[in-house]
Each structure stands twice: as C-alpha cells, then as structure tokens.
Write a structure and sequence with these properties.
Keywords: Hydrolase. This is N-acetylmuramoyl-L-alanine amidase. Residues 5-87 form the MurNAc-LAA domain. The chain has a three-stranded parallel sheet with strand order 2-1-3, with helices on both faces. It has helices at residues 26-42, 60-70, and strands at 4-9, 47-50, 74-78. The model has no long low-confidence stretch (mean pLDDT 90). Strand 1 (4-9), helix 1 (26-42) and strand 2 (47-50) form a beta-alpha-beta unit. It has two helices and three strands.
Length: 101
Amino acid sequence: MKLIIVIDPGHGGSDLGAVGPTGLYESHVAWKIACMVADILMRYGIKIIFTRVGDVRVSLDKRIEIANSSKADYFVSIHINSANNPKTTKSKKIRLGESLS
C-alpha cells in the first residue's frame, strides 16, 4: 500500500501570511518549500496531495476536508515565521496533541 501525505502550504492568495522585512510573503515561501518537499518524497514512491496548488486562498474548512477525505497517513502544514532581527534562528514544530505555546 502506497504511503499518502497531504502537504498544506500555509496561507495563499489574498492571505499572505507573515511578511518578512524585505517584503517576502510567507505564502510564496511555503509554496516553494512544499514543492521541494513533494519532489523529494515522490522519488520514494510516496503519493502527495496538496491542499492548494499555486497562489490561491483555500479555507481552513476546505483544507481539513482535503486531509480527511484523502485518508492520508500524514498531514504536514508548512508555515514560516517572520522576524525583523536577521540573527533570529528559531524554529517551531507542532505535533497532534501538543500545546501551541
């Protein structure tokens, strides 16, 4: 049975997400990262389903519907935080059941 992963590139369309100090949009960066991750995973025979394709806005309800109807083994949502300090190097990961704090 083929492994299925839903990749959710955060934000999109009119929802730009975080905006970096140089004007870079989170939605654009999330989409590019999602494509790179998908390319790598597909080389291993993993089926990829995106919650959005390109720079379009998809509601949270629709993203949930896509994830649930796909019967995916994993759901990966990609978001990028912004900071004005170029020395900021923190990252955050959240797993199901973990607190957001």
